[in-house]
Amino acid sequence: MLPRPLSRAASPIPPSNFLRYGSDHLALNTPKPHSATHAEFEIERITKTPNPQQSVPMAMQGYENTAEFRDYVLQLLEATTAPFTVSGRFRLEATQLTLFFRTKAGITHSLDFPVDVDYSLPPSLEVLIATCRPHGTVDYGGYRSNRPSLLFPLDLPVNVSLDLASHPILDAVRNTLFPNLPPGHYLSTVKDRLEIVDAGSRLDLQPHSLRKDGRTATIIITLPSRFEGGALIVRSPNGLQEKYVGRGGTIEEIEWTAFLPDCEYEIEPVQRGCRISISYGVFLRTFGPNGSDALIRPCDEYLDKLGSILNISRGRKIAFHLEFDYPVNPAESLADSVVPLLRGGDSLLYHALKLYKLSPELHWTAGGYIWPVERSVDFVSQDIAEGHPLWAFAFPQAGKLPQDVPALRGPFGSAHFPDIATQEASNLRTKVESNGAMPLSEANITVLTGWEGTATVTGKERVYLISNGELGKLVVNVLLVVFVS
User: Fold this and answer.
1) DSSP letters along 56-108, please?
2) Which residues make beta-bridge pairs with 264?
3) I need a surface site. Which of 178, 183, 288, 482 has the fewest CB within 10 A?
4) Kind and range of the H or E run holding 447
């Protein structure tokens, strides 16, 4: 079959929606709906976004050495290193908040929130304002106002349906203002006062001398009553100042501010509305060695059992071994540092002795010796075998005990090689006595344990020591000692 001759006719023109040539680029139009046999390319161009660093003006070189910049940095570091106030918000439906108060006539009223006096003045708020009296620190010469700030009488009951324990306010106060508070110390609050600053009035400077009740901080909570102005200003003894403008008593969130007891505060004039705030005194409670507040109160039956022992032991020192282990290094800490960590029966016994108006103390004890309450077991930096040739004579090659012989057994000795064990125990006793410890028999302390043969559970702490170049651990116990008066 002969091949088909090539046609000399012109090639057909491609469709207009296929390719279109420009002067400097190739543009591919968006194709129309087509069948699967007709393939076309679709390209989407990505627009370039400007570099944000190019749009931000850069500071001139050497700006960090200017006096103005250094002053700003010093102010920031000073406020960061030693904060004296902290503020925050927590979410709470204003409709769930109610203020209860009693008038001089003995009638109890309730004020529901939110409050907006520009919209309507609740009758209970009128009664509340009529019950209040002018603030005792109003300075009429400093600010011209015919409407002074108001203070609810301190001798009349007032409360708000707000449980501070349900919100982590005290945790925020503790973490910010008291970051070094040791374990066993906790914060509690006591309602202080209710203050009202309505339109055209202000609260003048409140000196810290008005709050001499042993508090460690003050918390001011702004209740959801709309107002404008009325910024809270807190000043530290060093002259620093923090200003909290606030959000005017919004109904979605409750604002709070806390500051240290040596600070002063004031509230700027309120332009519109009514600013209602209630304050709380924050107090530090502890059940540590110097604490007077008992956190735990054992039952009467337990106290009767302890009382029988105390009656027989009058004029004597008695002691109990603690039951649990505690994460305290006896070489670095005093035994009394265990008190905030007490748990179980140890905590029960300690607080029972406190309820009997006694002064229990914790001491380190080991090998029949007891350390003074103000001493730690801090002799471990020296080799207890140093200067004694018996060890080198017995084991001249390695200077060590055989592998089947423990490094330290019993009070201060070993069951094998009695001469060596006796020398080790003697050296250890010398170190212990030079550290201030004394035998329990000389301290006139009666350690109360179970009957002979009864297993006694005793908590153990461990102190590293060096014996003939070997690292070992000395088992140390905690002894609760009390003088029965």
Assistant:
1) SPPPPTTGGGSHHHHHHHHHHHHHHHS--EEEEEEE--GGG-EEEEE-TTS-E
2) 235
3) 183
4) strand 445-447
pTM of the model: 0.63
Q: In angstroms, rounded to a whole number, what is the distance separating the alpha carbons of residues 77 and 67?
A: 15
Q: Which amino acid would we find at residue 93? A: E
111, two tokens: 């004020």
Instruction: Give residue 113's region: left, alpha or beta (phi > 0; psi -120 to 50).
Output: beta
Using only C-alpha atoms, what is the Rg of the chain?
39
Structure tokens at 192: 């202080």
Residues with Cβ within 8 Å of 267's Cβ and at least 6 positions away in sequence, in order, are 149, 195, 197, 202, 203, 230, 231, 232, 233, 275
Instruction: Report residue 257 CA to chain centroid gap.
Output: 17
| Tokens, residue 267 | 């509230």
Structure tokens at 398: 């390695």
C-alpha 455/C-alpha 450 separation (Å) is 7
Segment holding 256, helix H or strand E: strand 253-259
Token look-up 């959000």 returns 247
Rounded Cα–Cα distance for residues 152 and 277 (Å): 11
Per-residue pLDDT of the chain (485 residues), as tens digits, is 445 544 444 444 444 444 444 444 444 444 455 444 456 666 666 666 666 555 666 767 777 778 888 888 888 887 788 899 999 998 888 888 999 999 999 999 999 999 999 889 999 999 999 999 998 764 544 444 557 899 999 999 999 998 887 788 999 999 999 998 877 788 989 999 999 999 999 999 999 888 888 899 999 999 999 999 999 999 999 888 899 987 776 667 889 999 999 999 999 999 999 999 999 999 988 765 555 566 678 899 999 999 999 999 999 999 999 999 998 888 888 998 888 888 889 989 998 998 898 989 999 998 889 999 998 887 655 666 654 433 333 333 333 434 443 444 444 444 444 455 566 677 778 778 878 889 888 888 999 987 665 556 678 887 777 776 677 778 889 999 999 98
Which are the contacts of 417, defined by CB distance < 8 A and separation ≥ 6?
394, 401, 405
CB 168 within 8 A of CB 176: no
Which amino acid is present at 345? Answer: G
> DSSP letter at 176?
H
Q: Is 92 exposed, middle or buried (0-12, 13-18, 19+ CB in 10 A)?
A: middle
Whether the Cβ atoms of residue 232 and residue 220 lie closer than 8 Å to each other? yes
Q: CA dist 215 to 180, 210, 211, 239, 359, Å?
A: 17, 11, 8, 21, 25
In 10 A of CB 238, how many CB atoms? 10
Cβ-Cβ contacts under 8 Å for 416 (sequence gap 6 or more): 401, 404, 405
- Burial class from Cβ neighbours inside 10 Å (0-12, 13-18, 19+) for residue 335 reads buried
C-alpha distances (whole Å) from 143 to each of 93, 139, 196, 344, 426 are 36, 7, 17, 59, 81
Alpha-carbon span 29 to 21, nearest angstrom: 11
